[in-house]
Structures are given as C-alpha cells and as structure tokens.
Specification:
The structure holds two protein chains of two kinds.
Chain A: E1 4-7, E2 10-13, E3 19-25, E4 33-38, E5 45-49, E6 53-54, E7 62-67, E8 70-75, E9 84-90, E10 97-98, E11 102-106
Parallel strand pairs in A: 2-11
Antiparallel strand pairs in A: 1-3, 3-8, 4-5, 4-9, 5-6, 7-8, 9-10, 9-11
Chain B: E1 3-7, E2 10-12, E3 18-25, E4 33-39, E5 45-51, E6 58-60, E7 68-73, E8 78-83, E9 92-99, E10 106-109, E11 113-117
Parallel strand pairs in B: 2-11
Antiparallel strand pairs in B: 1-3, 3-8, 4-5, 4-9, 5-6, 7-8, 9-10, 9-11
Classes of the chains: A mainly beta, B mainly beta.
Amino acid sequence: DIQMTQSPSSVSASVGDRVTITCRASQGISIWLAWYQQKPGKAPKLLIYTASSLQTGVPSRFSGSGSGTDFTLTISSLQPEDFATYYCLQTNSYPLTFGPGTKVDIK
Amino acid sequence: EVQLVESGGGLVQPGGSLRLSCAASGFTISSYWMTWVRQAPGKGLEWVANIKPDASEKYSVDSVKGRFTISRDNAKNSVDLQMNSLRAEDTAVYFCARVVTSSRGFDPWGQGTLVTVSS
C-alpha cells in the first residue's frame, strides 16, 4: 500500500501569509494526487487535481506542484475563509490513501 | 445543480448491518466511477470503496473487505454501500462522491451520513 505523509500536521498563520503544505508518497504516484479542503462539519472540497490543476471555481491563490513522491500545496495569501484542514489523496493505485491532514488555524 | 445526497445512517449494534444510499441529481452516474469515503469522529479521511460505471470492477480498503459491498443502480441514479458485521471502529460519517473521469478527483461530495456502531 502507498503511505501518504503530510507536513506540518498543523500550522498557525495570519491573514495574508503564504502557507505551504507538503505531501509525500511512500512510492512514486506520477501526478495522481489531489488536494482537498475540509471545514468542520462539512464535506471535503476538491481544490487541486493531477497535482497542479486548479479545480474550477477555486481561487487562484491556491496552487499545487510536484510529481513522483513529493508534492506541495501553496496558499499565496491566506484569507479568513481558508482556515480549514487540508488533505492530500493519491489515486495512482488501490487502496487509495489520504494523508493525515494539515490543520491551518489562526495565529 | 450537480448534487449527491446520502441516507441510511443511524445507530446499529456491533455485528449488525446497515445499507447506505447515495442519490445523485443533476448528472447521470452511469458515466462515472463512484466512491465512498468515511471519517471517524475527530479523525482524518479514509477511502472505503470504488465502483466502475458498469459495476464490472469494485475495489475496497482491506479493513472492510468481506463485510462491505458497494453497488450501483444506474437506472435509479444511485450508489449503495451494504455494511455487514459492523464494528465499533466503523463508526464514522460516510460520504459518497463522484470520481471525475479525467482527473480522478472526487467532486462533488455528498453531505455525509453518520453511522454509529454501539451497544
């Protein structure tokens, strides 16, 4: 099975900060990685697919990069509505696996 | 509007069964893989199962193999998750989602339905 790790597990940041979250796969997954945002009590929302493609309707301050085993999600200028938990998901092979999540909260 | 709505959650005793349903509207599921994902209280997301558009392929996480079965009724535009031999560790909110064909991203998601396994 492919194990996904994320760092940091949590980050405290201020509005306007640049935030970078890293996701690492235990083996190569090409570009089959997506990023999701989840707010408390809500369903996850797709932000980025195939590692770097921005989902329709998602603000351009979100960006993704990487391939193989190392990936990043960057929020260029954190907005109040961005405080949430972020998960990566690999869809290269079964079983599909999520990272443990990164909580972004207010500093 | 493209939408998914889950139903069927509730309280069940250990060893019991429950059937979850996911009703789609605004699109036809017959063209898409569909998926179930769960989230235990206060925990992260866990992929549970996927099903191909024609149901000829199904995949699931090891922890539910032999106990959970994913199925679909394209005519009714719905996907089900039959859960048998339920355990306390199956307690979670269960989400269904559409798998976007070209990207393998999960979008949209339903609002989720809570399954509680307890005596």
